[in-house]
Amino acid sequence: MMTIAAVLQSARQQIPHNEARMLLKAVLQTTDVWLLTHDDAVLNYEQHQAFLTNVERRNAGEPIAYLLGHREFYGREFSVSPAVLIPRPETEMLVDIAKASVGAGRTPSSCVLDLGTGSGCIAISVALECESARVTAVDASVDALKIAINNAAQLNADVEFIHSDWFSALENRRFHIIVSNPPYIANGDSHLAQGDLRFEPPQALSCGDDGLAALRKIVGTAPNYLHSNGVLAVEHGYDQADAVRKLFVDAGFHRIMQQRDLAGIVRLTCGHCPAVITTAPNATVK
To answer: What is the pTM of this model?
Structure first.
């Protein structure tokens, strides 16, 4: 039998102290304050073993979000599992774009589509931030949809979830705003064998020899599902800004804008769909 102080001290040999505290807090289903004020409390055998197992898994590189079963996104906590990507800060820019587009719209109720919703973090955040919006989210993975539906229920968000491979189940539907964080890493890219990416679902990470296959399909097809002057916004890789901008131009989008993440890297491209598809004018990176 070991005390909380002792097990945390021992775990520091394998993982950072703050991560050990998060894992122990999850095992004991308690709070930071309780841990601080009860460091002499003794763990029972089951609690100790569960904690040691999670420490070993974390030391082997497994994402702490999967071990804890949740990750914060846009100020809310979302359940996650290896069936879905772990939400990342840069993806919050898609929510910002959707919010701005809903606010700028002239229709009383904007229809928003989230392609490849995963955990549902984008769609649910938009639904909660924009109460007038009607939000639809699709994913080709049934397991991912189960996670997303559960998150919507837990956060009391009104989102329509559909099992669909991109636009395949959305015939005759049109939206004012389409957002997507699709797979954009090239097949065989060395990054897939590093860090958290080793444990995340491959189909949600990589697509095609250049990583642009999903983006080509989404950008090229989106005009058929957007209202006149509708907005498409997509996240993409750190080195894909020029290629993705060209996809938007080739698909006839105009007022194309690109946004940088906190590291100063262009990670998001958005554009407006005209009433009649024409060649889009040049746009500058902002």
So the answer is: 0.91
